[in-house]
Amino acid sequence: xxxxxxxxxxxxxxxxxxxxxxxxxxxxxxxxxxxxxxxxxxxxxxxxxxxxxxxxxxxxxxxxxxxxxxxxxxxxxxxxxxxxxxxxxxxxxxxxxxxxxxxxxxxxxxxxxxxxxxxxxxxxxxxxxxxxxxxxxxxxxxxxxxxx
Length: 148
Known about the structure:
By secondary structure, the protein is mostly helical. It has 2 domains: 7-87, no CATH class; 92-148, no CATH class. Helices cover 53% and strands 3% of the residues. The protein contains 5 helices and 2 strands, in the order H-H-H-H-E-E-H. The chain has helices at 7-25, 30-43, 49-69, 71-87, 141-147, and strands at residues 89-90, 93-94. A two-stranded antiparallel sheet has the order 1-2. Strand 1 (89-90) and strand 2 form a beta hairpin. The chain is elongated, with a radius of gyration of 24 Å.
């Protein structure tokens, strides 16, 4: 017997009704309902089971933090997640490489400059020569030290 596509929808509607009743009774805050709804909707976008499981565990942590500390708990949880991501390395390269260890080679994080203006190689990868070959821009005094 196959599952109907309406089963998850009915579950979501039931959860929203129970959440509204809990807010009306003063048991939980409306912010908690918003956090639970956003994380539940986000969990439908994860195709891999193992990744979905780890996100579900994190979601329960955020729910507990929101229930205990409110908005400050959610912000604290996001800060802990950001600190954890900054401390991770993958094959010797920081996980948030162009953002977290900010260097001279990454000035174009938000707005990407044209390719001919990118003179330096990314420092996060540990290149032997930090200056790209064939760069049309003249090198300054500090650039000449890196190139030699």
